[in-house]
Structures are given as C-alpha cells and as structure tokens.
C-alpha cells in the first residue's frame, strides 16, 4: 500500500504530526515537514504532497487569521477538521534543572500560551523557533545546556529529553483545531454540516446586516466572522457557518452568494466536536467596519 504524503508545519512528534495521524488514522501516511505555513501551502498547491494539515484555531490564542488568507491565495480545499489537546511541557537535556535554564525555545504561539509561566520565572528568556518539537530536536542534536524547549510530551520521548515542568500553558483547556487540506475538490460527505466562506468585504454594513438576518432566519449559526489581514483597504472576510445538515448548509450558502463578491467556499465538511473539557472562545459575529 502506498503511503499518503502530508505536509505539516514542523517535524516528527509535533502537534501537526499528531493531527495528521489523527485525521488519516485509517491510512499509511508520510509526513513532510515544512518550516512555515506558507511553505506548507506552496507544497500542496504545487503538487509536492498529496494533502496538508494546518492549524487554524486555538482555544487560548483564537483564530490564525493569516492561515485563512493562505487557503484563499492557493485555492486550497478543506475536507475535514479535528481538535487536538495541546500539552505544553518544559524539557531539557537529562540532568538539567529549572534553575540552570536561561533560554526557552518554542513556536511563538506556544510561547504565548505559556505567558504566565514566564511571569513566574523571570530569569527565563523566551526565544521564538519555527516549531515546538524541532526546538526539542535542536537541544538534543546540539547538546544545548542552559536551554529548554516547550513542546509536547511526545517530543521529550522522541529526543530523550527530561521534562522539567509539565503542563506549563496558562490553561489546561488548551486545544487546537486542525484542517485537512486538498489541492482539488473532493466529494462532499453526506454528513457535512459546516462551511468556511471567504468573500470581499461588502461596501456597506447594511449588506452584512441583511446577510446575517437571512442566515438567522434559516437557523444557520455564524461561528466566525472576521476581517482577514490585508494591505487592501477593503479586504476580505472569513465566515464559518454551521447548520443542522448539508441541505440547510447549501441553502445558506446560496443565500450568501448573491450578496457578496469573489466568494470561495472551503468545504463543506463535517464539524469536529470540541472535547467536552475545553472551553473554546465564543466568536461573535461582529460587523466589520465598512
């Protein structure tokens, strides 16, 4: 059986690696490490891999809005999603103690999730790296003393590092949502109840008001409505819709399409259930200013 090549941000034992295996649990896969989300998107769009997995939301940090822009730019399609628990641990070479550590390496999002830990230990200097697990790998390969990494327990096991402090994130309710991406459209699952829409920001706020009113009338929930980062004064919006079933979702998309310009539909897909122990941020449908 041939393996499926899946681009991930980071390397072995990263959270993206774990998400890829969860989303493709019934297939033999080969993960292809990428240092950035842009290089991940380029690898998939250019045909270097069969699929990709990309983080899109964290219950502590919120939505990764620039990643929606990458999906739009590279015309990628979302076929599934999954929530993954994120266990952030401080790890270093065996024999090192917390008081020996001066520098902590990790991905900027992971560092942000552990801000309280750094406030409690002011002698620690955070240093950004492109990945959590690869930070652990660098410590092991270069035998870096006085340096620790924040990463998942799987990285400590893989690279033979000692966990100095477990669960150093600001909250134990730390979950990240990952998207499974394809280059081409695939068959829409009958169980689909969610869609991600990207469209040009309407010139008038009244258009958005009408749009939201129509969706409410059709009992479709707007889970996310935000402006994407852009140098364009008008820019684009991202909207995530959830419905009772595929038919209701398709009717909702049909309501939106005539009211907006340059709409892209990512999906539809089946919504992933957020673990019951997590308290995700509630995204309100706030009307962006015109």
Automatic annotation (TrEMBL):
The record marks 176 as: Essential for prephenate dehydratase activity. Its EC number is 4.2.1.51. GO terms for molecular function: prephenate dehydratase activity. It catalyses: prephenate + H(+) = 3-phenylpyruvate + CO2 + H2O. CDD domains: PBP2_Ct-PDT_like. Keywords: Amino-acid biosynthesis, Aromatic amino acid biosynthesis, Lyase, Phenylalanine biosynthesis. One of its GO terms (cellular component) is cytoplasm. Residues 5-183 form the Prephenate dehydratase domain. The keyword Lyase applies. GO terms for biological process: L-phenylalanine biosynthetic process. Pathway: Amino-acid biosynthesis; L-phenylalanine biosynthesis; phenylpyruvate from prephenate: step 1/1. PROSITE patterns: PREPHENATE_DEHYDR_1, PREPHENATE_DEHYDR_3. InterPro entries: Chor_mutase/pphenate_deHydtase, Preph_deHydtase, Preph_deHydtase_CS. This is prephenate dehydratase. It comes from Pontibacter akesuensis.
């Amino acid at each position: 059986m041939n393996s499926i090549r899946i681009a991930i941000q980071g390397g072995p034992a990263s959270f993206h690696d774990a998400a890829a295996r969860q989303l493709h649990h019934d297939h033999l896969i080969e993960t292809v490490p990428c240092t950035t989300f842009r290089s991940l998107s380029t690898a998939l769009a250019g045909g270097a891999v069969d699929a990709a997995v990309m983080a899109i939301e964290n219950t502590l940090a919120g939505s990764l809005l620039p990643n929606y822009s990458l999906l739009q730019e590279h015309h990628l399609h979302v076929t599934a999603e999954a929530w993954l628990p994120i266990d952030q641990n401080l790890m270093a070479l065996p024999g090192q103690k917390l008081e020996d550590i001066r520098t902590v390496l990790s991905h900027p999002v992971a560092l942000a999730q552990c801000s309280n830990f750094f406030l409690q230990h002011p002698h620690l200097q955070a240093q950004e790296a492109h990945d959590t697990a690869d930070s652990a790998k660098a410590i092991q390969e270069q035998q870096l003393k006085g340096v620790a990494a924040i990463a998942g327990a799987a990285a400590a096991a893989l690279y033979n590092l000692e966990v100095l402090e477990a669960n150093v994130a600001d909250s134990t309710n730390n979950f990240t949502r990952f998207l499974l991406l394809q280059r081409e459209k695939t068959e829409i699952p009958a169980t689909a109840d969610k869609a991600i829409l990207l469209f040009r920001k309407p010139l008038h706020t009244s258009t958005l008001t009408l749009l939201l009113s129509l969706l409410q009338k059709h009992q479709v929930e707007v889970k996310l409505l935000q402006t994407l980062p852009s140098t364009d004064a008008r820019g684009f919006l991202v909207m995530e819709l959830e419905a009772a079933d595929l038919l209701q979702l398709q009717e909702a998309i049909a309501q939106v399409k005539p009211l907006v310009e340059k709409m892209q539909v990512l999906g539809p897909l089946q919504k992933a259930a957020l673990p019951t122990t997590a308290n995700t941020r509630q995204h309100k449908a706030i009307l962006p200013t015109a």
